[in-house]
Write a structure and sequence with these properties.
Blueprint lengths: L5 H5 L22 H8 L2 H11 L1 H28 L8 H15 L1 H31 L10
């Protein structure tokens, strides 16, 4: 095996990437869905994917984060009241503690959700917004300015 990926492809593994890139090679279709998910969510791959989406990834994380925080507030309040808690100012820190617990447990889910939602945000929110802003900054349609 003179080339970099020959031995790996013969063994059914994905070819290794150069060590300087820091990105793990994408798994082949022969690997299980769990292995593909783990490779996608590996810190190097997740960071690289988030960098490619930029603003879309930030907005997707914000949207997904808002949904998970809202759901965690509802879940924490329901758990508190199901355990016999009574509403009052003393209940607020206990409910916030439940929210904190749920949100720390769900952090990998939020990152994965942002990675999954970033292409949708790019297509339906960022591109139209950039097109509208470039239309306004350019003074109208190109080539159709007023005399």
């Amino acid at each position: 095996p003179g080339a970099t990926g020959d031995a790996a492809s013969a063994a059914g593994r994905p070819p290794a990437t150069p060590p300087s890139s820091g990105v793990v090679a994408a798994p082949t279709s022969a690997t299980s869905w769990w292995a593909r998910l783990r490779a996608t969510l590996a810190p190097a791959n997740a960071a690289a994917t988030l960098r490619t989406y930029g603003l879309s990834a930030v907005l997707a994380y914000g949207l997904f984060d808002a949904v998970t925080y809202s759901l965690s507030a509802v879940l924490a309040a329901r758990a508190y009241f199901a355990a016999g808690g009574v509403w009052g100012w003393a209940a607020v820190p206990k409910i916030f503690a439940g929210m904190w617990l749920i949100n720390n447990v769900s952090r990998p889910l939020r990152v994965a959700g942002a990675l999954a939602l970033a292409p949708v945000v790019e297509r339906w929110l960022v591109r139209p917004l950039r097109a509208a802003l470039s239309y306004r900054q350019g003074g109208g349609r190109k080539g159709g300015g007023e005399a």
